[in-house]
Amino acid sequence: MVRADARENRARILQAAREAFAEDGETSMNQIAQRSGVGAGTLYRNFPSRETLVLAVYQEEIERIIGTVPPLLAELPPLEALRRWTTDLVEAMRRKHGLGDALSSGAHQAIAEQTYGPVIGAITELLDAGRRDGSIRPDADPGDFLQLTGALWRSAPGPGDRSPHMLALILDGLRTR
Questions:
Q1: Which residue in 69, 79, 66 sits closest to 140, CA to CA?
Q2: Which of 29, 36, 51, 155 could be bridged to 12 by S-S, CB 3.0 to 4.6 A?
Q3: How many domains does the chain have?
Q4: What is the pTM of this model?
């Protein structure tokens, strides 16, 4: 069983890393230790390398996004829930791609393997809700949807960001006729 103070330290480190990486993907481990208020030893005991820390931040983000599916479906029609959820996923993927230089190809593969199934499960839940209410085509495939949305997080963010328009086109293609 993990002590409460150890859990709190880990949570502080992850929060500090998430914020630091969002500001600057090149943030050092020492800067993260300072920002989280823990010593370097505590940081490295929890995360032996920068790569393990980046992976943990990303994994936690994906878990958070997946956890938003039930509340979104409880308050919104399925297509709107899918739009909001996908927008959140796109932002997370853009942050991950911003950290890409910090990760080896093996780490990229590990992220894909760890998150693919849960992300497909979340998309399936959203699509199934739309199928049940008749708003989403019966042949909508979660894998196809994820592949199409890959273009969204690769598009340039900022004032000329085309991803909202592209997402609208993807969602329109899911609608029943």
A1: 79
A2: 36
A3: 2
A4: 0.82
